[in-house]
Design goal:
The complex is a heterodimer of chains A (about 250) and B (about 400). Chain A is an alpha/beta fold. Chain A has one domain (about 40-60, about 80-245): Rossmann fold (3-Layer(aba) Sandwich), CATH 3.40.50. Chain A has helices at about 50-60, 80-90, 105-110, 120-135, 150-165, 180-195, 210, 240-245; strands at about 10-20, 25-35, 40-45, 65-70, 75, 90-95, 170-175, 200-205, 215-220, 225-230. Chain A has a 6-stranded mixed β-sheet with strand order 6-7-8-3-9-10, sandwiched between helices. In chain A, helix 4 packs across helix 5 and helix 5 packs parallel to helix 6. Chain A is globular and about 50 Å long. Chain A starts with 8 loop residues before the first strand and ends in a 7-residue tail after the last helix. Chain B is an alpha+beta fold and about 400 residues long. Chain B has 2 domains: about 15-65 and about 265-395, no CATH class; about 70-260, no CATH class. Helix content of chain B is about 55%, strand content about 15%. In chain B, strands 1, 2, 3, 4, 5, 6, 7, 8, 9, 10 and 11 form an 11-stranded mixed β-sheet that branches. The longest helix of chain B has about 45 residues, at about 260-300. Chain B starts with 12 loop residues before the first helix and ends in a 9-residue tail after the last helix. The interface of A and B includes residues 59, 61 and 81 of A.
Chain lengths: ~250, ~400
């Protein structure tokens, strides 16, 4: 039924409109966007520009008022709540500005919750959680609770939870918004590493510095796509490319 | 390929149970307090029913032991309120009635009093009755001698007394061999009876043999009460026949009673009270259920972000609904199990204190659990539905 625009598109938005309340307020006013497999892009815009709404729509947490959303070639409009939940359980990972970790539970428990709705038994969940924590550089913090960790470490735990089920798509909402510059840089570097390993990553941010380091930037303003730097030509960037940019101190004058 | 291929959103049963437990364990004080309401309700109902059944079990074993086939024919009053003595042959007549197995009689010896010694002023009788007893009385009543001995053919003719339990206490007699004064005659205490359940009037009696009684009164003693054991099948027929047989001239002035009926009637009165208490217990249970519902509603409101996060992690609406329903069920189950333990405990203490057997019907325990789960499901259904309706986007709102 739904025609797939590009065979390697992870996300495709076509004229997506999202209105709230009555009289309707327009949060997204006809947005079209294609995100290809292996891309890493920043959605940039000031507060109230509609970027959070866009992330909700991209993550199937919200449905558009009109227009088409294809996730992995699946038309969201044709999906039931169950289908969308399954999509989130298996195909999408979320990283939030406020981490949303469960206080009082260890890092490994928090991360294994990322597999809770995939039908993976507890023992295997914990094994994979441990792998994911090692992967984000927290192999020494497995049994720590959120209140025993720094902000940067907490966000790494949250990222581990988002990728523990190895989703093809990772959505991050202001992942550095609650972190100081140094911790933020570490988290951005981690996102780059995940990207190099093949994960498609969409980062929502109003941090221009962060966005500048990403291969592709999409600017959103008043619900419209204002500017799209476009995907860099050729295959996903080589390992050296973003690393060089990372080497530039974030606070340096541009 | 318009749907996610194969993979569904799944929550394993073991994980669901774990979620329910950890959800409650995260706020232990609140869980215990709201489970307490249910616990009190269940405990009240189980204790009330348990105490009632324990006392019934006690009555049943008492009746089994004492039998329900004892009838008592007593002298009645005529139209003018005058006591009409039974004929002296009343016990022999009763023994001839078809279905009667054994007969005994007591006869009040005039208005004689029994005293500890001659120093006690006459008339201060302590409410004790002096009565003659036929030799078979002990067997017919199913009574027991606590110390000393019952009358023999020999002692029945001589000044020997057997005291009821209460009578011994009031006279200050602790052992056979002591002396009491009946009328003007010193009697030796031959025995002291244990309390007689089916004939409490014996407890406050000072019994003497028939021959001795006649000697004290200077005349044959008329029976006051004739105790009749009938075969179980004939109890009703015997009850009809006895008055006409022992007093053919004035059968209406013979009162026949069945002591076991009095015990059963007393029990029935307690039952009415039990119904009232069970009603109160169910009100407590209802209030407990409302407490659980309230806790769950608050919990859902407080945990909107957790719910949003779970939705983002892939929980379907039904998973959120089940999580909160299971939590409500566990909450009321916690109360139910606590209530059962508490209720059985209270019943046990009460039963032991009264010397009853502990009897709590398993049906009541099962019913308590079922009621608990039903309340949990009812109390949890609405909050769980509300939780499932919370949109997943709240996870992204701060």
């Amino acid at each position: 039924m739904s025609t797939v625009g590009a065979s390697d598109a992870v996300i495709e938005l076509r004229d997506v409109v999202r209105e709230y309340g009555s009289p309707p307020t327009l949060a997204l006013a006809g947005v079209s966007l294609v995100v290809r497999r292996g891309e890493m892009l920043a959605v940039v815009g000031p507060s109230g520009s509609g970027k959070s709404t866009m992330l909700n729509v991209l993550g199937t947490l919200d449905r558009p008022t009109s227009g088409t959303v294809l996730i992995d070639g699946v038309d969201v409009a044709s999906c039931t709540d169950d289908d969308l939940s399954a999509l989130r359980a298996h195909r999408i990972g979320f990283v939030f500005q406020q981490f949303h970790l469960t206080e009082g539970r260890t890092a490994i428990d928090n991360v294994s919750d990322g597999l809770l709705y995939s039908g993976v038994p507890l023992r295997e969940r914990r094994e994979r959680a441990e792998e994911a924590l090692v992967r984000v550089g927290l192999g020494h913090r497995l049994r720590h609770r959120p209140n025993q960790m720094s902000g940067g470490e907490r966000q790494r735990v949250a990222i581990a939870r988002a990728v523990v089920h190895r989703p093809p798509l990772l959505l991050a909402d202001e992942p550095t918004g609650n972190l100081d510059t140094k911790a933020g840089a570490g988290v951005v570097e981690l996102l780059h590493e995940l990207h190099r390993e093949g994960t498609t990553i969409v980062v929502i941010t109003h941090d221009v510095q962060l966005a500048r380091d990403l291969p592709r930037r999409v600017t959103i303003r008043d619900g419209h796509l204002d500017d799209d730097s476009g995907a860099p030509a050729g295959p996903p960037p080589s390992v050296g490319q973003p690393a060089t940019q990372d080497a530039v101190p974030l606070g340096s004058p541009s | 390929m318009s749907r996610p291929a194969g993979a569904r959103s799944v929550l394993l049963g073991s994980d669901l149970a774990r979620l329910g437990v950890t959800g409650l364990a995260a706020r232990p004080t609140r869980a215990v307090l709201s489970a307490l309401g249910i616990a009190i309700g269940i405990a009240a109902m189980i204790a009330v029913v348990g105490i009632s059944t324990s006392s019934q079990a006690q009555l049943r074993s008492t009746l089994d032991e004492l039998g329900t086939n004892l009838l008592v024919a007593s002298q009645g009053k005529d139209l003018f309120g005058e006591a009409v003595p039974l004929p002296t042959t009343a016990d022999e007549a009763a023994a001839r009635v078809t279905g009667v197995e054994s007969v005994a009689a007591t006869g009040t010896v005039g208005d004689l009093g029994a005293y500890r010694s001659s120093a006690v002023p006459k008339g201060r009788t302590n409410g004790l009755t002096v009565a003659t007893a036929t030799p078979g009385l002990l067997d017919v009543l199913g009574a027991r001698v606590a110390s000393g001995a019952w009358f023999t053919d020999g002692t029945a003719r001589y000044p020997v007394a057997v005291l009821g339990d209460e009578a011994a206490e009031r006279l200050g007699v602790v052992a056979p061999g002591e002396h009491v004064l009946i009328g003007e005659v010193v009697h030796v205490v031959g025995g002291i009876l244990a309390p007689v359940t089916l004939a409490p009037e014996i407890d406050a009696s000072v019994l003497v043999g028939e021959g001795d009684g006649a000697a004290l009164l200077g005349d044959a003693v008329h029976p006051t009460s004739v105790y009749v054991r009938a075969s179980e099948a004939d109890v009703d027929a015997v009850r009809q026949t006895v008055p006409r047989t022992i007093s053919p001239e004035s059968p209406n002035e013979v009162a026949v009673s069945r002591p076991s009926d009095a015990l059963v009637a007393k029990q029935a009165a307690d039952q009415a009270f039990t119904g009232l208490l069970v009603g109160l217990g169910s009100v407590a249970l209802l209030v407990g259920g409302i407490g659980v519902a309230n806790t769950m509603v608050i919990s859902v409101l407080e945990r909107r972000r957790e719910i949003g996060l779970r939705r983002a992690l892939g929980a379907a609406r039904r998973h959120v609904r089940r999580q909160f329903l299971v939590e409500a069920l566990f909450l009321s189950l916690l109360g139910g199990v606590g209530g059962i333990v508490l209720g059985v405990g209270v019943t046990a203490v009460f039963a032991v204190a009264n010397g009853w057997p502990l009897a709590v019907p398993p049906v009541v325990l099962g019913g308590g659990l079922v009621a608990t789960l039903a309340i949990g499901a009812l109390a949890g259904a609405w909050p769980a539905m509300r939780a499932a309706r919370i949109p997943p986007t709240v996870a992204l709102q701060s």
